[in-house]
Amino acid sequence: MAKKSKKAKKKLPLAYKPIGFALGWTSGTVAGMAFQKTWKVIKKEDDAPDALDRDRGWGEILLAAAIQGAIFAVVRSAVDRAGAKAIERSTGTWPVPEKGGRD
After folding, report:
1. Considering only 31-35, 71-75, 82-86, which range has the smallest mean pLDDT?
2. What is d(CA 55, CA 71) in angstroms, rounded to the nearest whole number?
3. Cα separations in angstroms, 49 against 28, 41, 100, 102
4. Of 33, 24, 8, which Cα lies nearest the Cα of 91?
5. Helix (H) and strand (E) counts for the chain?
6. Contact yes or no for 74/99 (Cβ under 8 A)
7. Measuring CA to CA, how many Å separate 97 from each of 5, 6, 35, 84?
8. Separation CA 45–CA 36 (nearest Å)
9. What are all long-range contacts of 86-93, with beta carbons under 8 Å and residues at least 24 apart?
């Protein structure tokens, strides 16, 4: 019986991969929408600057990149954590076998 339980625990990270992929894709979409709304509130513009926008200054481009990165990291971490907790509640096993992150 204990042997079966160990096998199930080893297979869980592999089974979690498609769920993790879907959660990652969803979190990226949500983060993109959140960034667009945040930028609209900050600068009253629909489009955030791109690094290759000739008419935008360094400060504005770097500010947009920093805000976008922060929002993406927070949303991704929240979605990853919620997904892992849901897997743990439903299976009794944490989806990652050891300490560590996604990388």
Report:
1. 82-86
2. 25
3. 18, 14, 34, 29
4. 8
5. 2, 0
6. no
7. 13, 11, 33, 12
8. 9
9. 87/12, 87/16, 87/19, 91/12, 93/8, 93/9, 93/12
SS3 state at 101: coil
pLDDT of residue 93: 83
Helix-strand-coil percent breakdown of the chain, rounded to 5?
75, 0, 25
Give yes or no for a contact between 93 and 5, defined as CB atoms under 8 angstroms apart.
Answer: no
Q: State the pTM of this model.
A: 0.74
Mean pLDDT of 73-89: 90
pLDDT at 102: 58
